[in-house]
Amino acid sequence: MIPKLHYISQGSSPKEHLENIQNACSSGSELVQLRLKNVSEKNYLKCAIEAREITSLFQTRLLINDHYKIAKEVKADGVHLEKTGSCPTVARKHIYTWQIIGGTANTLQDCETLIDKEVDYIALGPFRFVSTKDIAPTLLGLNGFTAIIEALKTETPIIGFGGITTKDVTAILETGIPGIAVSEEITRDFNTVRIFNQLLNASSTAEQRYTFK
Fold it and tell me: CA separation (Å) from 135 to 130, 131, 132, 210?
């Protein structure tokens, strides 16, 4: 079973990423993704080790962005692969069998490709413009989410991402997407973790939460 809320780490330095991860964990985040950019692999590994220590204390799941070898080394719960990152099939050969793989998608074709490669979940977006993305893919909005979900009809868990705020959650759930990944809104105010969790669980009981296939 995968949590419905993913916190994607933010910060101007690895130290700030770690501080924000600790804040997210202490605020009730059940899953965080360490997403560092423009750092050496050595520094990424050092940060990932510390992130694993923090998340372990809170029994929070940890995903590593793109670096599947680091995910294996620190025994993270899994790896999230960007569209320009490694192939899930390749990554699968190098990580533990119990580690999960997620992939980023922007189109229906992206989703179908990831499903064929047997990812454990798909992050679909962006919902709206976000400054954290290096490129500017098509913004999906509610209509894009709805169209892709209706066409897919998959059991693979889909989470929405991209500038999502607490005000968007109810409408996003109505598109058929049961979970979200959030970065900026939570980093601005870690109290929103509780609000996001309440909104995401309001429409379902614990027994109905979607699971990995």
Answer: 10, 9, 9, 31
Q: How far apart (Å, rounded) are the C-alpha atoms in residues 213 and 205?
A: 19
**Which pTM was predicted?**
0.92
Domain containing residue 58: CATH number: 3.20.20.70
Determine, yes or no, domain membership for 212.
no
**pLDDT tens digit string along 70-123?**
999 999 999 999 998 899 999 999 999 999 999 999 999 999 999 999 999 999
In a domain, 213, yes or no: no
Q: Taking a C-beta distance cutoff of 8 angstroms, is the pair 181, 122 a contact?
A: no
Distance CA 12, CA 198 (A): 29
| Domain region containing 55 | 5-206
